[in-house]
Amino acid sequence: MSHPSLYLAALVLYLAWGTTPLAPRTDAAATKGPFDVGFRVEAVRDRSRTLGPATDFEGRRHLESREWPVQVSVWYPSHRAVGPVMSDGEYRAWHGVRETLGTPGAPERGQAASDLLSLMTAADIPGGPEDARLAMDARGVAVADAPPAPGPHPLVVGGLGSAGIAWPLAERLASHGYVVATAATLGRTASDEATRPQVALETRARTLEFVIAHVLSTREVDAERIGLVGVNFDGAAALLSQSRMMRARAVVSIDGREGKPGGGDLLDKATGFDVVRLRVPYMTVQWDEPTLPALDAALFERMVYAPRDWLIFRGLRHAHLVGNVASVPTLPGAQRQAIGRMHALVQSFLDTHVRGIVASPPPIEPALLAATRHLDALPAAPTREELEELLWNTGDVLRGLEIVRQAQARQPGLVLLDAATARLYAFRHEAAGRPDKAAPLRRYAEETAEAR
Prior knowledge:
By secondary structure, the chain is α/β, with parallel strands linked by helices. The chain has 2 domains: about 5-50 and about 65-375, Alpha/Beta hydrolase fold, catalytic domain (Rossmann fold, 3-Layer(aba) Sandwich), CATH 3.40.50; about 385-450, no CATH class. It is about 45% helix and about 20% strand. The protein has 17 helices and 11 strands. The chain has an 11-stranded mixed sheet with strand order 3-4-1-2-6-5-7-8-9-10-11, with helices on both faces. It is globular.
């Protein structure tokens, strides 16, 4: 239950928000690229999933739709965005209708005000209702339903949360030529993150994959230039989605679950996850929380086929990274600067690896960084499907086995091809009348069994 004083403060904040002219937002304008920006919310349903049975356990039939709701927020380049620009408060209000797929009104705006005050408390940002009101009055650069610029444009699919969280980074990217699409997290998924993390991970990965398929059905995006950006639990979901689909050219994780204790184990248990399949550039920004359990870089170190970067910005805690505090006027200057540098770094990373623009990363003042680490990638190893192509479809057995031996020699402990699978391929070749293909596989199986 909300604290009474917090509720009253939020009510006052909301009433003030609806009657006060919008304040300028200089940092959004300063980081704007060559494009105007449009914004829209698409209310869609994933018919491959349901919220529950059509009839409950007591025999009562649900009258409302049980198909899985997906509120997709989309920012896109526009050639002529004319009209009132979106405010921070308008963006935040969309969170309240992420499950009903309706249009936000007064109740959602009031709840958004309360949520912002709670976020300020969690982030230890000084100030009260007046500061929160100024934050919600702050404007971005996007215009709702502005006409899109001719495409196709590179696509960034984000597990960035609702529009109120995503908009500062999303507007920036869209103004530089990206279509950015992100889906809000349902309340039940947030609960599952704490009590059933494996279920939550699968749910969010499927939502990311649904959004990719949904947005690719339009003509405005380039299916060959995709980046994934995940925040919090969606950092791990982005890695799982990439492992399964291998469609993105780069993955960014902001305060991702994979960097916390147990994050690697969580992904290892997920269907379709394999570090061998992660061979695109990866960057993660993790929290600076000295009073919480230490971060866990074990998975980061195991992602040997991906060139990867690990960064910690000084003073950016969990609340700064997973919530949007950039518009709060009382945010300390060093933290505001760090958030701006982080957004610039994400854009530069995507420009380099998704758009293919060769550019130096933006300079970051050493005082802003608490830690930074870069690891180069090993030469890529074949996936199971690529091994199947070599060892069976093309029958290039000798080359396939040499590739396997080299990869396993470079990475001790890696097992690309076990003895049982090698024997299976040998049996299939023998059954097809190709004993010359089977013999090397039999020898490999014997060598592998002896080595074990």
